[in-house]
Amino acid sequence: MNKIAVIGGSHFASLKNLVITHSTSVKTPYGEPSAPLSYGILGDQEVVYLPRRGSQEPMQPHQINYRANIWALRDAGVQTVIATAAVAGIADFFSAGDVVVPDQLIDYTYGRENTFLGESEVTHINFTEPYSEQLRQQIFQNAEKFSFPVIAKATYAITQGPRLETAAEIERIARDGCHLVGMTGMPEAALARELGLDYACIALVVRKAAVHESIDEFKLSRGEKWVEDLVEAIILDETQKST
């Protein structure tokens, strides 16, 4: 049975119905991942959970060992990766609590270890569509089944951090065609593609980009629950397909 990995981002602490069986500290050729891998069962599905920014003091986005994280998941027998992320909305129609499944991204990061390929290897992976369309469709099917409101098309801008963006930077990113902005989507997605993993992102809008406004805590809390319930629904759906 295909193991599913869930990479937990900010505003996503765990899956409430995931029964953790054990946790394992691992080492990879690229160092240690952000935290020990937590193995568990949801339904009959094997799940590996990894908090992207660590389980103790949160790591800064540019300090995360993305290569170790993805390599460790692949070595654990994972083929499918559901990544969650907290983002800011750029487009006017986004507000706190919205759940978005981006279909494209633009990488504004720099200085991050962003490939498994060595200097002597000349290989160009196809990254035209950075997210697994099959997995995205599975997300949409489960969202529709349980009436979770999900926005199905958006371009995700990944900035270096750890500071937030200036108003001028957000204007530029918007002109580039981006609808969301966050700090952890790359090189994670590209590394998953290099290892042949099915990878998709479920993003929760937690605020408006470069805008000082009060956040509707009810909508944000509701969005957090939708993300958790949606991830669990996808995992249980995979269990049914395997039986």
From TrEMBL:
The Nucleoside phosphorylase domain, residue ranges: 3-218
Top-rank taxon: Bacteria
Chain positions recorded as phosphate binding sites: S10, T184
Gene Ontology molecular function, alphabetical: S-methyl-5-thioadenosine phosphorylase activity
Keyword set, alphabetical order: Glycosyltransferase, Purine salvage, Transferase
SUPFAM superfamilies assigned: Purine and uridine phosphorylases (SSF53167)
Pathway the protein takes part in: Purine metabolism; purine nucleoside salvage
Site residues by UniProt (Important for substrate specificity): E165, H212
A GO biological-process term: purine ribonucleoside salvage
Function: Purine nucleoside phosphorylase involved in purine salvage.
Protein name per the record: Purine nucleoside phosphorylase
